[in-house]
Amino acid sequence: MMKKLISLALAGALMLALAACGGDEPGNINDVSPAPSAPASQQPSGAPTSGGAQELTFVLSNEPDGIDPGVTNNSFAKYVLNNCFEGLVTYDESGSVVPGNAESWDISDDGTVYTFHLRDGLKWSDGSPLTAQDYVYAYQRVLTPATAAQYMSMFTDYIVNAKEFYEGSATADELGIKALDDTTLEIALMKPTAYFVDLASMWCFDPVQKATIDANGDRWTASADSYICNGPFKMTAINMGEGYVLEKNEHYWNADSVTLEKLTLRIITDNATALTAYESGEVDGITAIPAADYSRLKASDPGFNSFPSYSTTYYNINCGKPPYDDPLVRKALALAIDRQAIIDSVLQGRGVPAYSYLSPGYVVDGKDITDGRSDNELTAGANVEAARAALAEAGYPNGEGFPTLQLSYYSSDTVKMIAEAMAEMLQNNLGIKVDISSNDWAVFYDSVQAGNYEVAAMGWSADYQHPMSFLPLFKTGDSSNNSFYSNSEYDALVEQVMVESDPAKAAELIMQAEAIAAGDYCCLPLYYGTNTFLMKDYVSGYYMTSSSNLYFQNVKVNK
After folding, report:
1. Least crowded by CB within 10 Å, which of 36, 173, 296, 558?
2. DSSP label of 226
3. What is the pTM of this model?
4. Can you tell me the distance from the alpha carbon of 199 to that of 187, in angstroms, rounded to the nearest whole number?
């Protein structure tokens, strides 16, 4: 969605998306998008085969900014990463965390030391042995500044001396990540973290092979020959701008359970073109459903899929840049938006109005922890009078003196429509001028991370099934905090959540923190979405988690 930044575009099919945890696919209701929820010359295009061949062509609506699990947090990469790699743990069809490369693990009595026991005989896709030392290398690589790992904080926030190792003040021997032997990995945490196994499901905790990176450097992900992985599928073709061809990895520890022989991930950025390819039988599935066709396909296409999504589509507001550093200005922007009109007109009813960045879906003792929380004076429709009052209180009566608002978004048909609708609402309801700009995802997101924006399309699909996947988005100094919001009370509560082992108490702290940031209008929330996509009804066995991760290892094609 960042997973994943979820890109707004994903929400359109999902609904809109984000960077990885960040960006999902354009066209999904997360096209802004909880628990369930070949040879190198081969081209990733062409019609699906017939006669029972175990081959599948699935369309991606955007190209990832990279497919290195240790670097990217862009959710456009998830279709490659979740099927080419496997970490210590993974998710099953029910959305539960289950053993992956690790067949079991132990937790010390004080909750700070996790000992993972790897399966015997693990191998890389080139047939070479995969050991605990590979995990140590992969994690040290994430903690090496030159790697520019987007999820570095998933290590530095939790693991003993990880921050110090990253800064160069601690050695590898002092780092709380050690291979006790070839099949035993020990990870020492600074404090008890009840959700650490959930964290370990993220792709930044996947192993990467040192030999291929030593030989190829950053280019190891540019060629199928050097893209050595360890999941149910291996890379056999990489065609930049066109897609990827994956084939069954015969060296995967559970290869006997993998029926699908070939998986083509084809990139078609125009949602209407992708739908035409699907309806003509050229491809077997697509990630992004055009908003104009959503209702028709939901009612008539047997391949229509809808999965719960632990995600929120929102717009970042640059809280570090005047006049957006004023909570009253941010409040006025949030109040001026008619969420229901966007959901009804652009998204064709796919979504629920959002009044906070924290998505519903996390349950403790049978109750969603967000039940009964404040709406922060936001409503499904625009509250024009209150919006104008807030802007006037901030010193801009009737929008007078307010600088032209720069509203930016990334390339996506759905996101474009949402941005245009929002611009009109802000202009009409606040009396301000709005300029709109767009760019490809990679360029757009670089600008957001650098703070070169004012209000920008964004969203977040949880990387793991816990609200802590959302809370760092607005924590001072966190690498995922691209809104540059800062509140010491919020930070302190998030720190408490990180070490609280009692789920009920943790839930209480989470909601206290959420009330502070949402009450400061740390962002402009739009809607909570669902994951929707199309897959021909002769395909079975795929499943999607509420983090929008789509798994193909159990797929069967029955034509």
Report:
1. 173
2. T
3. 0.73
4. 12
